[in-house]
Amino acid sequence: MHSPLTLAKKYFHFFLHASNGNGHGVHSPFVFNFIQQVKNKRPDEDIVSIEQVRKKLLSDKSFIEVEDFGAGSTVIKTSKRMISKMAASSLKKKKYSQLLFNMVKFYKAGNILELGTSFGITTAYLAKANPLAKIITIEGAPTIASLAQQNFELLQLNNIEILTGDFNKKLPVALEKMPIVDLAFIDGNHRKKPTLEYFFTLLDHSNSSSVLVFDDIHWSDEMEVAWAEIKNHPGVTLTIDLFFLGIVFFKNDFHHKQHFSIRF
Q1: Which of 7, 29, 31 is nearest to 19 (CA)?
Q2: What pTM was estimated for this model as a whole?
Q3: Strand partners, 261
């Protein structure tokens, strides 16, 4: 993991070299539409109830027992943690949740997979964006998964199935239920080996319309190596680097690879 200072320096370098966030100067109709219709789209009123749940989590001073999973397969320890502190460190910011919401709507994603449920805020955004979509989300820690399920019920979201346990064991189960994935949000084990394993597994369940979204692509040196390998894969035709998120497309109507870095 990069130190806060290193990450800040990397972001400053990114900011200087990335395209501005309004789409001007981007010579790709596909990416211009992404900027205008997804990245810059105003928040939808459907998210108000989800943000109320987020606010509740951020003020919850109660403690829960949480199992830590190491290397994606083994429980390291169980510890008591305060919900508000966990929420503050693990929940994606509103603008990234809104981005996922807009992506589901704009690309009409019907089969959606999430690795890393946490308390279910991003899952709820994915589900709200398309009530007819099928959402499968995987969470390693049973206590966190239970709270996420409570949040889904509170928000009256009936199109989410949560699988609890080791990603390596539950991902094949999810893909049996969802042979083709329209959109996947990978927010799990932020290391090179598991990230690439998730990518190659999902590659076999993707088509030219599928979209993969990877979290924290600049979080560490090895995540940056993983992101570089994903970008260079022959099946990947276009990527968008938003610094904290990396978005992968497989559109077969592009004649050469395109990689964009865009301020967000």
Answers
A1: 31
A2: 0.94
A3: 241
